[in-house]
Specification:
Elements: E1 7-17, H1 20-30, E2 34-37, E3 43-48, E4 51-57, E5 80-88, H2 91-101, E6 114-115, E7 119-120, E8 126-131, E9 137-142, E10 168-174, H3 184-196, E11 202-206, H4 214-223, H5 225-228, E12 233-238, H6 245-258, E13 267-270, H7 278-295
Parallel strand pairs: 1-4, 5-9, 10-11, 10-12, 12-13
Antiparallel strand pairs: 1-5, 2-3, 3-4, 6-8, 7-8, 8-9
Length: about 300
């Protein structure tokens, strides 16, 4: 069986730690990881550059394969890598691989290899463990709302982060609302991007009913350290699912008017809408179908 088209890469690992709080500080404050999940006392997840790392305390009580290696469900190694995660973009991809591995002929030539039944974990991720012929533990896993839910194989040729990305400023341009709650998803996306791209100027702007306006944000950019560090390109991401009157007519006019305050050698570009890239639509399908699927699963 060839790798599924939903395979996103080897983008996850888990290591065992003695002191979870200390390890969280080390990975975030020293190495620059971002906290992704840290509500539990025996397990946490951090992220960096499109990958995630689980920090598993020796006191961890979550689900593990009951017969992995030879030590049983509580046989965590004293230190080092506990398992590597093969990340996929849907629950269906997890089930398909498990079904393939449990066919009588698939592992017949590898008597010590074994796939353990899929489980729904406390963080709502869904996956199964696979023990390879040498006893190494892999996990085929789907995790909803994770930073690595993109496919490296479909990176656009015009990817703004490919060359000298630090010289590009990013603005998330949304419609706007007088309801402060409406802006929360935009601000959450902004903050997530800032943690993933700390060297890039990233800010939000609104067409109407909320501040900052696009001109406000461009003025902030001109006053920022990004300007003095050589930024001369602004990439605007419209926060719309598809192109319509706002994107095709209103945004170009708003951008042209606000951009007059920029130096003449600056370049301003309007990126595609959120729903245009194929992999974004695939992520939406996985999220919608995955939620329905998870609701039908028993509580862990």
């Amino acid at each position: 069986m060839k790798a599924s088209s939903e395979f996103l890469g080897l983008r996850h690992a888990a290591v065992t730690v003695k002191n979870l709080a200390q390890s969280l500080r080390f990975y975030t404050e020293v190495l620059g990881f971002s906290r992704f999940l840290d509500q539990d006392s025996d397990w946490a997840m951090v992220s960096f550059a499109g990958t995630t790392l689980s920090l598993v305390s020796r006191t961890y009580s979550g689900p593990l394969p009951s017969e992995a290696s030879s030590g049983g469900s509580d046989a965590l190694p004293p230190r080092g890598i506990h398992h590597l995660g093969l990340v996929v973009s849907s629950i269906q991809a997890v089930d398909q691989m498990y079904q393939h591995l449990t066919l009588p002929a698939t592992l017949a030539s590898y008597p010590s290899a074994r796939a353990f039944p899929p489980k729904l974990h406390r963080d709502r991720s869904y996956g199964f463990y696979l023990q390879d012929p040498d006893g190494n533990l892999l996990e085929w896993i789907y995790v909803p709302s994770v930073p690595y839910l993109t496919k490296a194989s479909v990176t656009p040729v015009s990817d703004p982060f490919e060359l000298e990305y630090q010289k590009t400023a990013i603005i998330l341009l949304a419609h706007g609302s007088s309801d402060a709650q409406w802006t929360r998803p935009i601000l959450a996306l902004r903050d997530r991007l800032r943690s993933e791209l700390p060297a890039v100027f990233i800010a939000e702007a609104y067409m109407e009913f909320a501040r900052p306006t696009l001109e406000d944000t461009l003025q902030d950019l001109l006053r920022s350290e990004a300007h003095s560090s050589g930024v001369k390109r602004v990439l605007i991401f419209p926060q719309f699912i598809s192109s319509g009157g706002h994107v095709m007519k209103d945004l170009p006019s708003i951008i042209a008017s606000a951009s007059r305050i920029l130096p003449p050698d600056w370049k301003v570009e309007l990126a595609e809408t959120l729903g245009e890239p194929d992999w974004v639509r695939e992520a939406m399908v996985s999220w919608i179908s995955g939620r329905l699927r998870r609701e039908s699963l028993p509580n862990p």
